[in-house]
C-alpha cells in the first residue's frame, strides 16, 4: 500500500493528525524530534539553490517537528490536496494551510510530492523503518 511522509513544521497544529485520520489514512510512524541544520539541508536538498533555502532551514530547526508516515490509497496525491497550496494565501479554505497558515515561509506542514520522494523521505526520517503492527483492511474505507 502507498505511503507518504508528512511533517508538522515547528509552529504546526495538532489538528493536522486528525485531518489525515478522519480521511481514513493509517498512521504507520510518528515521532517528535528536533533536527540539525545538516539533516534539514538533506531533506530539502532539491531546493538548495533557492533564495529562501537558508530561511526555510532556519524555520525547520527552530523547534521540534512531528514526523509521520501515513498509508493509504493515493495518499501522496490526496495528502497534498488535504495540505493545500504551498502559499497559504492561495490555499483553499478547508485545507490545512488554508485554515492554519498565513505566510509561505510559515506554512505549518510538509508532505511528499511523489511516491519516489516519499520513499526517500521515509528512509531518511525513519531509518529504523515504519511501525510494524498488524495491518488491517478496513471494509468501511476500501471497497
Ligand atoms: P513542502 O516541501 O514543505 O511540502 O512544500 P511544497 O512542496 O508545497 O513547496 P516547495 O516548493 O517544495 O517548497 C518547500 C518549502 O519552502 C518554503 N518556501 N518558501 N519564501 C518563499 O518564497 C518560499 N517558497 C517556498 C515553504 O515552507 C515550502 O513549504
Automatic annotation (TrEMBL):
Residue sites binding ATP per the record: 9, 52, 80, 86, 97, 107
Necessary cofactors: Mg(2+)
Organism of derivation: Erythroxylum novogranatense
Keyword set includes Transferase: yes
Name listed for the protein in its UniProt record: Nucleoside diphosphate kinase
Catalytic activity: a ribonucleoside 5'-diphosphate + ATP = a ribonucleoside 5'-triphosphate + ADP; a 2'-deoxyribonucleoside 5'-diphosphate + ATP = a 2'-deoxyribonucleoside 5'-triphosphate + ADP
UniProt keyword annotation of ATP-binding present: yes
Similarity section: Belongs to the NDK family.
NCBIfam families: PRK00668.1 (NF001908)
Entry superkingdom: Eukaryota
GO molecular function, one term: nucleoside diphosphate kinase activity
Pfam families in alphabetical order: NDK
Keywords on record: ATP-binding, Kinase, Nucleotide-binding, Transferase
A GO biological-process term: UTP biosynthetic process
InterPro entries per the UniProt record, alphabetical: NDK-like_dom (IPR034907), NDK-like_dom_sf (IPR036850), Nucleoside_diP_kinase (IPR001564), Nucleoside_diP_kinase_AS (IPR023005)
Residues of the Nucleoside diphosphate kinase-like domain: 1-133
EC number(s) on file: 2.7.4.6
Catalytic residues identified in the record: 110
Amino acid at each position: 500500500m502507498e505511503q507518504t511522509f508528512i511533517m508538522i513544521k515547528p509552529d504546526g497544529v495538532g489538528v493536522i493528525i486528525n485531518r489525515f485520520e478522519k480521511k481514513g489514512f493509517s498512521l504507520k510512524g510518528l515521532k517528535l524530534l528536533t533536527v540539525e541544520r545538516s539533516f534539514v539541508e538533506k531533506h530539502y536538498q532539491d531546493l538548495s539553490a533557492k533564495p529562501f533555502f537558508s530561511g526555510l532551514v532556519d524555520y525547520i530547526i527552530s523547534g521540534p517537528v512531528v514526523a509521520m508516515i501515513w498509508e493509504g490509497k493515493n495518499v501522496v496525491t490526496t495528502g497534498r490536496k488535504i495540505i493545500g497550496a504551498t502559499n497559504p494565501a492561495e490555499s483553499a479554505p478547508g485545507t490545512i494551510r488554508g485554515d492554519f497558515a498565513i505566510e509561505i515561509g510559515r506554512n505549518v506542514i510538509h508532505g511528499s510530492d511523489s511516491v519516489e520522494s516519499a520513499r526517500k523521505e521515509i528512509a531518511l526520517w525513519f531509518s529504523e523503518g515504519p511501525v510494524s503492527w498488524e495491518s488491517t483492511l478496513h471494509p468501511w474505507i476500501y471497497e
